[in-house]
């Protein structure tokens, strides 16, 4: 698991650390890390380091100081460095002096044209964790003139550090070097895209950090959490997943969710609904009946995809919520809960519920999301005493106790009709096996995204291909637990 910490937590940790080390130490460590990545990018994009040209965009604070010190280190490796000062009277004095001593050039923003045109690499030291709002006009104009790849110091300037929201001009970096740990800007929404490849450089602050504010799962975490049957197991012990999905109008949702539950490794899938024939035809291993009332015992239910939002869907959801087993409520089930909150009364308060809305369903259920997706999902999880998984390029999964898991998509190929049905089937499979619901949602989101990427191989896919690729994705995560 990799942690993500808010700027508030990072600042507090930095304060504690700064009291124990000589002034300037942390900035030099940070800048050394920036210079190392700059050299790597120069080699990659310009074929070498010595003799290449770097322009530094330098703002008013310590982020600019980092860039100036990095420039001084790059000078020692024979790089031609020009610092463009956005705010000359508030430039970091020690950093500026260090760059000048090392033979760097310094220009003001108005005369930056030639340096920017000649640069093989641009270092973004405009603003860091104290950034508020989009780039201001002077900085935005300079950034618009950049054609070389950009290396962001700590974070891409103009993005909100704690939400990843982009609300105007912002730097789009090829790579970002950040210090001590990842911050929300690197993993949430547009911020993740604007950050490019994120490199974390240790500067000591990591030792001072409390519990993370959110976590990302790695392949090895998912591989370790995904159930593997042992000699003692049989199909019932592995878990029976109930799927209450699909309808005469939408039989495909039932086929996809049932198929994903099968491929996810549940011991048995019991399907209940009016798409039983379609499910049997594609997945003969599924035990299919026409109604939830005669489905038999299950250890978890997946309910919602394609069931419709009429009376029949309502009754199915009510039955499933009162069954006393964990429930993954998706799609129409969420719309039904939004429309008729009394349905919650059917729920046994001790049974876990995982809600998996896309943005539209989330808005129906819990109101507009706003720029702070994590805060919105946390509030919804607390309000509904449920795990809430908000889908998207960044999937955010909150526990009612405030814990948050984030899954950053490898590609956008999974944004295709029926893809959500696949996700709910995978979650159901893990819930039936008894995996902790918050972790189950996180692992399913990871495997869903990986299956999409493996199936796509760079070309468009349909949701059926994602179901087919689930075993490959599971082999990949299991291999990661072996190799560490
Ligand atoms: N505190 C520490 O221990 C360390 C801090 N470091 C660096 O320090 C940075 C934080 O530095 P500061 O707190 O001095 O502040 P920043 O450098 O993030 O911001 C400086 C100033 O930029 C202006 N600004 C805010 N939003 C802007 C916008 N949208 N467009 C243009 N200008 C804007 C504000 O006047 C702000 O005070 C970190 O991101 C990191 O790069 C590193 O040197 C490592 C150690
Ligand atoms: N831009 C994107 N990049 C990566 N994955 C995405 C993106 N947009 C949506 N997804 C994923 O695709 C799936 C779509 O689910 P959903 O909207 O419920 O579709 P459907 O109802 O058609 O099954 C979700 O798992 C979501 O996280
Ligand atoms: K920056």
UniProtKB/TrEMBL annotation:
What are the residue boundaries of the YjeF C-terminal domain, all occurrences included? 218-477
Q: Name one GO biological process term.
A: nicotinamide nucleotide metabolic process
Question: How the cofactor binds, per note?
Answer: Binds 1 potassium ion per subunit.
Reported cofactor(s): Mg(2+); K(+)
Enzyme Commission identifier(s): 4.2.1.136, 5.1.99.6
Q: Which Pfam families match?
A: Carb_kinase (PF01256), YjeF_N (PF03853)
Annotated keywords: ATP-binding, Isomerase, Lyase, Metal-binding, Multifunctional enzyme, NAD, NADP, Nucleotide-binding, Potassium
Which domain of life does this protein belong to?
Bacteria
Q: Which reaction does it catalyse?
A: (6R)-NADPHX = (6S)-NADPHX; (6S)-NADPHX + ADP = AMP + phosphate + NADPH + H(+); (6R)-NADHX = (6S)-NADHX; (6S)-NADHX + ADP = AMP + phosphate + NADH + H(+)
Report the PANTHER family cross-referenced here: ATP-DEPENDENT (S)-NAD(P)H-HYDRATE DEHYDRATASE (PTHR12592:SF0), ATP-DEPENDENT (S)-NAD(P)H-HYDRATE DEHYDRATASE FAMILY MEMBER (PTHR12592)
Stated name of the protein: Bifunctional NAD(P)H-hydrate repair enzyme
Tell me which species this is from. Gandjariella thermophila
